[in-house]
Design goal:
Elements (H helix, E strand, L loop, with lengths): L8 H6 L1 H7 L4 H20 L11 H16 L7 E2 L16 H12 L6 E2 L4 E2 L4 H11 L3 E5 L2 H13 L3 E5 L5 E2 L3 E2 H8 L2 E5 L7 H7 L4 E7 L15 H11 L3 E6 L17 H6 L4 E5 L10 E5 L1 H9 L1 H5 L4 H16 L3 H4 L1 H6 L3 H18 L4 E10 L11 E10 L4 H9 L5 E2 L1 E3 L2 E5 L16
Parallel strand pairs: 1-15, 5-8, 5-9, 9-10, 10-11
Antiparallel strand pairs: 2-3, 4-12, 6-7, 11-12, 13-14, 14-17, 16-17
Helix pairs in contact: 3-4, 5-14, 6-14, 7-8
Length: 457
């Protein structure tokens, strides 16, 4: 077949298969798919690429059109199975929401809600009022507000309290987190002027004191949540910084990054700074994330002195960075669990996965291997080993949690190829490669059947 013999778009649209498509799908989408398929075929013929004559028949071309339309209707966000061993995997959406939060999101998405309406007074209310009441109760802070993520919380606080003035911070706390977010750059965008003190590994109270001038607006402490410096080190503890701030009349802010509302060590996990403790130790403002160890939706939470929070709310940036109704609904529901639930680990999926007993993980791994052996041929070799998981998203980066992994091996398929094949399953199963072996970490797997891949080819 020559280029002239390729069917016109109008002829493709008259084909019975295409006619059925047009009954279900927007006409413009179908027309675009027809043109795209024909353009691909023309390019292949012009470039001298080998083309199967059968692929140029109208039925084959219409089949490609149908496949392209179907693919274009699929959401970019696909459900996947997280068998990576990273509980809060940033690339996979971090924390899974509690069921109460899911229900709240559905209600907010399908019904009018009191987002900014005060039922008692019958007039406009404040969007973050419910979140504030819960955060005040949970942390002991005077006031609280919320924006769309923790980077936004830091940006808002610095812009509000230190625009055009100095912010003093230890050189060892000038962190960079995922996505190339760097504290110095966010400070520059906020309008604040960075004053570094100390060295990478050692900073003392005298370093802060020597940097204070009449231009100093804020003393900033940043929790190094995604790395640790060990060895010959010294840092200034929050109470020391607060004492200095009180003496010099300068507010103190701490960015916790991944802030915990409860003591994680009580669940057998490594200790992470608890927000209420930082407030009790005198921080004027504390910022932290909603979708890390807190286990809620993406949000930047700010708690602290009422006078400072009021200034943050008055900043026009506060509106630009505000959360939508779905985030507010999910966050309120999650925080309410922290206030009301008798078993917070059971009700917060992120905490449940982090605190899951090893014996339970191994039992799930055993059941999953049995299911995999029934589904696979004898050429696949499966075994269970102990390994370690991590919390992820910059939380407790040096801490590892005991886990069980399923090792999948095949004589003719490399670990990279096995990982690719599992990603092609429906839904895709995301594992990890370690020492040239493909592993399925079972810590975040509750149903063994989730690890059995289903392929369409």
């Amino acid at each position: 077949m020559t280029l002239r013999e390729l069917p016109a778009v109008s002829r493709l649209l008259e084909h019975p298969t295409t006619a059925r498509l047009l009954a279900r799908v927007n006409r413009d989408l179908v027309v675009d798919a027809c043109r795209s398929v024909l353009d691909d075929l023309r390019a292949a013929v012009r470039n001298g690429q080998p083309v199967d004559p059968a692929a140029l028949e109208i039925d084959a071309i219409v089949g490609r059109v149908e496949a392209r339309v179907t693919a274009s209707r699929d959401s970019r966000l696909q459900r996947v199975v997280n068998a990576t061993g990273t509980v809060l995997h940033t690339n996979l959406g971090r924390a899974l929401l509690p069921q109460a939060a899911v229900d709240a999101v559905v209600t907010a998405a399908t019904h009018p809600v009191t987002l900014e309406y005060d039922l008692a007074r019958g007039e406009r209310g404040r969007r973050d009022q419910g979140v504030e009441e819960l955060l005040v109760a949970l942390t002991g802070a005077e006031a609280a507000t919320v924006v769309n993520n923790n980077a936004a919380a830091v940006l808002l606080a610095l812009n509000t309290l230190a625009n055009g003035r100095d912010v003093v911070v230890s050189r060892g706390e000038l962190i960079e987190i995922g996505g190339a977010f760097r504290i110095p750059e966010i400070m520059a965008r906020s309008g604040a002027v960075l004053r570094e003190v100390g060295t990478t590994n050692r900073t003392h109270p005298a370093d802060y004191e020597a940097a204070i001038s009449d231009r100093t607006a804020l003393l900033l402490k940043v929790h190094t949540s995604n790395y640790r410096i060990v060895g010959f080190v010294a840092d200034v503890k929050l109470p020391e910084l607060v004492a200095l701030g009180r003496t010099r009349g300068i507010p103190v802010m701490e960015d916790l990054g991944s802030g915990a509302l409860v003591d994680l060590s009580g669940f057998g996990l490594p200790q992470e700074p608890v927000v209420a403790d930082r407030v009790a130790r005198g921080a004027d403002l504390v910022t932290f994330s909603g979708d890390k160890v807190l286990g809620g939706p993406q949000a930047g939470l700010i708690v602290g002195k009422a006078s400072h929070v009021a200034k943050l709310r008055a900043n026009p940036l506060h509106r630009a960075l505000r959360c939508d109704k779905l985030t507010i609904a999910a966050l309120e529901a999650t925080l309410r669990l922290y206030r009301q639930s008798p078993d917070i680990v059971r009700d917060i999926p992120a905490l449940r996965a982090c605190a899951r007993p090893l014996a339970e993980i191994e039992a799930t791994a055993t059941a999953a291997v049995e299911a995999l052996r029934r589904a696979f041929g004898p050429e696949f070799r499966l075994s269970i080993e102990r390994d370690t998981s991590q919390i992820g998203s910059g939380a407790l980066p040096t801490e590892e949690i005991p886990t069980a992994v399923i090792v999948v091996q095949h004589d003719e398929l490399s670990a990279t190829r096995l990982a690719e094949r599992f990603r092609q399953a429906t839904p895709p199963i995301i594992g990890r490669i370690k020492s040239d072996r493909f592993l399925l970490d079972v810590r975040t797997i509750w149903d063994p059947a989730d690890l059995v891949p289903h392929w369409t080819d």
